[in-house]
């Protein structure tokens, strides 16, 4: 990647220390993921995979990828590169979340079931997000004592946590999600976390989720 060279050659031209520091930060973020990849590997698909791995706001991703684009433009100007590679970036003002259509959801679930280390818990995590509308943290903190399969509802507020006006809600369990929750309950561990690995709670599923999204060609911001 030519981004570090771009920083060395373009950085001194920037008007302020703050601008140079911002450029350095963006390039450090880019290098963490793109290191070891060639310019020829830059594509809309790899840009989406980068965005999923970064788990940052669309604005942050857009700024970082704009630096990558500028670095390619600089390389073209310096005749080190024939042409810029095609890229993708999130739209300006895009929200952090978006809804998946049925085809995307199906592809994502198939990819999740193929994740060697996560195939037993990642599909249920995704289903709770799709049908329950909850955020990742709430899903990973969800315990079976918050799930009432008889009445068909989930209380997303953990026991003992004060309920506020902006707190987590109680939601009905859609029929399709109910089917998967009953299957999960019958598989064992009817107490403790709903989404787990061998009964143990999970701090994060970011890496396995990002891999599944990339395999399914789904960009979930």
UniProtKB/TrEMBL annotation:
Residues 95-221 form the Tyr recombinase domain. Gene3D superfamilies: Intergrase catalytic core. The keyword ATP-binding does not apply. InterPro entries: DNA_brk_join_enz, Integrase-like_cat_sf, Integrase_catalytic. Keywords: DNA recombination. GO terms for molecular function: DNA binding. The keyword Transmembrane helix does not apply. One of its GO terms (biological process) is DNA integration. This is Integrase. It comes from Roseospira visakhapatnamensis.
């Amino acid at each position: 990647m030519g981004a570090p060279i771009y920083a060395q050659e373009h950085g001194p031209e920037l008007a302020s220390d703050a601008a140079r520091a911002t450029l350095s930060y963006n390039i450090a973020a880019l290098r963490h993921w793109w290191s070891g990849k060639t310019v020829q590997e830059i594509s809309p698909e790899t840009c989406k995979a980068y965005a999923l791995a970064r788990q940052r706001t669309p604005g942050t991703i857009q700024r970082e990828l704009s630096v990558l684009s500028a670095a390619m433009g600089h390389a073209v100007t310096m005749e080190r590169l024939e042409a810029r590679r095609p890229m993708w970036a999130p739209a300006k003002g895009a929200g952090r979340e978006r809804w998946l259509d049925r085809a995307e959801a199906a592809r994502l679930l198939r990819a999740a079931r193929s994740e060697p280390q996560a195939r037993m818990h990642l599909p249920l995590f995704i289903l709770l997000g799709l049908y329950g509308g909850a955020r990742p943290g709430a899903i990973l903190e969800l315990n079976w004592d918050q799930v009432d399969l008889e009445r068909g509802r989930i209380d997303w507020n953990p026991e003992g946590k004060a309920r506020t006006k902006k707190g987590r809600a109680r939601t009905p369990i859609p029929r399709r999600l109910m089917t998967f929750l009953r299957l999960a309950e019958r598989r064992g561990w009817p107490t403790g976390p709903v989404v787990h690995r061998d009964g143990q709670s999970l701090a994060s599923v970011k890496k396995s989720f990002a891999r599944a999204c990339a395999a399914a060609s789904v960009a979930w911001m």
